[in-house]
Amino acid sequence: MLTKAVLIALAAATFTISPAEAATTVKVSRTLVVHVAPDQTFDAIKDFGGWQSWHPAIEKTDIKSGGANKVGTVRVLSLKGGGTITETLTAFSARGKSYSYRIDESPLPVTNYRSTLAVKSGKAGGSTLTWSSTFKAKQGVTDAEAKKAIEGVYDTGLDNLKTQLGG
């Protein structure tokens, strides 16, 4: 027979939520509309090992394992001004013009980060690129601060890509 103290302890344990579990899942999505064909837009972003060609915050990319856009490929992005981000490719579809990745290690204020870049046909032969993600804010960072940081990364990359593609 359970004592009153044991029942209270079990109830407390059942309703205890760690800060990581309590964190809200944050979503960010940015869209770029350009007047170039979807194939051309996807060609500009599809190389998981070549983000430095279109994202101005990336100095270089080192492929640590895998390659050629194979699921499981691990890359390390070296940031201009210092710092690195380690990421793993989790899905890739040349036919679907999309891929997904996760951040494994990063100075960004996020955890459990998962992201997808997808290109679709747009109006008048153009295309639409959507870059979206879900994540949680690191402990000590508000959801709004984490969201603002990721939006800044996306906006910087997409603005530069628009310039490169001729808008």
Per-chain topology:
Layout lengths: L3 H11 L4 H4 L3 E9 L3 H8 L12 E8 L8 E6 L4 E10 L4 E8 L4 E12 L5 E11 L5 H23 L2
Helix segment count? 4
Quickly count the domains.
1
The second-level CATH architecture is 2-Layer Sandwich
C-alpha geometry: globular
- Mean pLDDT over the full residue set: 89
CATH class: Alpha Beta
> Under CATH, the topology is which?
Alpha-D-Glucose-1,6-Bisphosphate, Chain A, domain 4
Strand content: 35-45%
Description:
The protein is of the alpha+beta class. It has a 7-stranded antiparallel beta sheet with strand order 1-7-6-5-4-3-2. The chain has helices at 4-14, 19-22, 38-45, 143-165, and strands at residues 26-34, 58-65, 74-79, 84-93, 98-105, 110-121, 127-137. Strand 2 and strand 3 (74-79) form a beta hairpin. It has a single domain (22-165), classed as Alpha-D-Glucose-1,6-Bisphosphate, Chain A, domain 4 (2-Layer Sandwich). The longest helix has 23 residues, at 143-165. The protein has 4 helices and 7 strands, in the order ααβαββββββα. The chain is globular. The chain is 28% helix and 38% strand.
Offer a concise description of the structure.
The chain has 167 residues and is of the alpha+beta class. It has a single domain, classed as START domain (Alpha-D-Glucose-1,6-Bisphosphate, Chain A, domain 4), CATH 3.30.530.20. The protein has 4 helices and 7 strands.
